[in-house]
Amino acid sequence: MIRFESVTKRYADGTVAVDQLDLVAPSRQITVLVGPSGCGKTTSLRMINRMIEPTAGRIWLDDRDTSTFSASDLRRGMGYVIQHAGLFPHRTVVDNVATVPLLLGQSRRQARSHAMELLELVGLDAELASRYPAQLSGGQQQRVGVARALAADPPVMLMDEPFSAVDPIVRAQLQDEFLRLQAELAKTIVFVTHDIDEAVKLGDQVAVLRVGGHLAQLASPADLLSRPADAFVASFVGRDRGYRALQFEQAPPLPTRAEPVVRLGVDLASAEGARVVGQSLEGWLLVVDDENEPQGWLDLRVPPAGPVDQAAVHRGGTLARQGGSFREALDAALSSPSGRGVVVDDEGRLVGSVTASQVVTAIERQAAADRGGERQATRVGT
Amino acid sequence: MSWLRYLDQNGQQILQWLWFHTWLSVVPVVLGLAISLPLGWVARRYRWTYAPLVTLSGLLYTIPSIALFVILPGILGLGILDPLNVAVALTIYTVALLVRVVADGLASVPDDVTQAASAMGYRPVQRLMAVELPIAVPVIAAGLRVAVVSNVSLVAVAATIGVPELGQLFTIGFQLAYFVPIVIGIVMCVALAMVLDLVVVALTRLLTPWTRAVVAP
Amino acid sequence: MGLIIDFLTDPANWQGPEGIPVRLLEHITYSAVAVLIGLAIALPLGLLIGHTGRGTTLVAGFANSLRALPTIGLLIFFVVLIAPHVHGKGDTAYLIPSEIVLVLLAVPPILSNTYAGVQNVDPAARDAAVGMGMTGRQVLLRVELPCSLPLVMSGLRSAALQVIATATIAAYVSLGGLGRLVFDGQAQQLYPKMVTGALLVAALAMVTDLLIALAQRVIVSRGLSGRYSRGRTLARDEAPAELAVHAAATGQP
Questions:
Q1: CA A207 → CA A31, A54, A65, A147, A318, distances in Å?
Q2: For B2-208, CATH number?
Q3: Closest-CA residue in chain A for C231?
Q4: pLDDT digits (tens, 9 = 90+) for A158-216
Q5: Three-state DSSP class for A354?
Q6: Which of A49, A88, A158 to mutate to test the interface with C (most CBs of C within 10 A)?
Q7: CB count, 10 Å around CB of A358?
Q8: C230 domain residue, yes or no
Q9: Are C78 and C100 in contact (CB under 8 A)?
């Protein structure tokens, strides 16, 4: 657990970066510090491992005041991941990861073999181990940075905008893998970002900071979206709050209708094909493979000549898992070219289809129940 | 003999040497720049020439000055005492130094700028003169300052093989084991170097008014 | 040209205390001593200045203004100053002031390249090093020094060339070395002798440059130089403009 007790940072020229911050980052959870430029989020993070010393107040690591440790001892017990990875360009990837264990006195062989395991954990190919950072892509470098921070198995991880320097697709991948890792490792993580969407996606609790280093609100992502504390938080969180809050609500089993399908490889001119076309609804036919996994839609106004193949399939429309969030379900329905959202089970096999109005009805029923009684929004598992 | 008396007695001679020294320092730099500009442009424009040109100039630059002063007369067919050797040698040095500086100075012009210029309709030579060179001036000027200041010191060395310039003050001082001319010589060389350096700085500022502009608040 | 070959092939010129091998050895010795002393002074100083960030303006100004001093003037100044006071064996009177000047010339390139190298280390790498618990000394020795090696080596290279060149001129103030061939040749009106001296000096300079360049290849981490045996290589051959002038000014091709 990390606790800020009335922590202030004032600079010589009078600027106050952090103003009497009181904050608890619970153990084994991800606490995200988020806010606009100048709100003191990075300063606060760097005060935890004393890269910056507080002017007033104390920071507690479990039951010890961080100022009672020696700075380098404190830091060796915390993983530190920064925006541009900060890999040592003169060392190979595996030697980069082995840095802290070596500093702590492990043998080189031990440190390196542990480093190889960590590279696998963060999803990197073993053959990258002997390469130099300059030979890696931005996303790969960030993974090495995370592996390096994990090397000494510290209970605490400090992360300063670690995924900001990569492109959005890589960023989404890194975020998903990060959540998977955390599910496995359960570290106490303090994570800084300027992106409210990232904060909402990753945080178990989110601290919104205001310019001048004041804490505006500390809440779970769902509460942040549904009950912003003041006008600043409301505008920072942004629009589409209702829609984005849907991702945190698990949908109850949805009333799906059985959807007629055609298998890949079937020729529409054949007897089988004609029968299926006869069953089709409103000119759209769902295509599945042999495992009954949806592949896409067929627009019957432009039917393919010959057997149905991958090239003929219209790929519009996302898939919603039965038991997933309201947001998934609604998006499946809205994005589907036929107007019928495809619902699948946990193995990806077809369950049925659902329309947008059916999903909205379920949402409204849920909201009415919430307004009427006590109920906690359950976070949808990944 | 006190300083002032020495200056008084030899003032004419010293001024002649100073004049000659200045010429020998400045002319090779101007010539060298004139030769380096097209060479540097070629090295930049035709990428495959960059490595050989830079390697060759690096090689030339490693040759100690006095070696060049001695070898050139044989190659050029001049007498050893002919100051033209010194001028040619220093020009070679300046070119060796500046080719890479010019190439890298042109390379320092941001790509967006050159592409915008082309898109507006500048032809390559126009673009070079109107856009790339002016922007490359600060980098090239930094190289020029190094060239001009080192030349002053290199010219002084030529006094050991008899060329009449400020370095003679040192040889005389050595032969007579006498401090006064030595110190006068050092002071004048340093002063000349600083003046020439300032001239290059002033010219640079003149050519780059945008670097003096006040940034908008 | 033919005369030069005659001179080179005359065995008399290869023997005795004034023979070519002796002069060559003298030259190498005097140069090496000066460079090593210069390295011993400038490297720790440069590391300290680069690491703490203090004193850079002072050092930069000092290094720059040293270039304006005429080397021949300095040599003669120190010899005239010191030689009368040294009554040891013949050459020492000229050796000490010459070595002083040679060391004075070797220090600035190594010093300014070292501290520039340390300051140019990727700030993210430095931040990460501190953040993972390295002490100041560990950061300096394990991260900053290895990462600044390319620039340090190029400073060493230009210092070596400066020293070799000036050691030639030092022969004018009676020091030994290959310059002696030049100045004795001048006194004796033997042009081939002068040219031999000059060519040998030029050759020595080039060989030294090559050797240090090779050492640079071996010592500097491949992660920095971009020399990989396989895998993707990212373009690293365009030096930023300021470094180019710096490189040219310190004599590295």
A1: 7, 19, 22, 26, 32
A2: 1.10.3720.10
A3: A135
A4: 999 999 888 888 888 889 889 999 999 999 999 999 999 899 999 999 999 998 889 99
A5: strand
A6: A88
A7: 19
A8: no
A9: yes
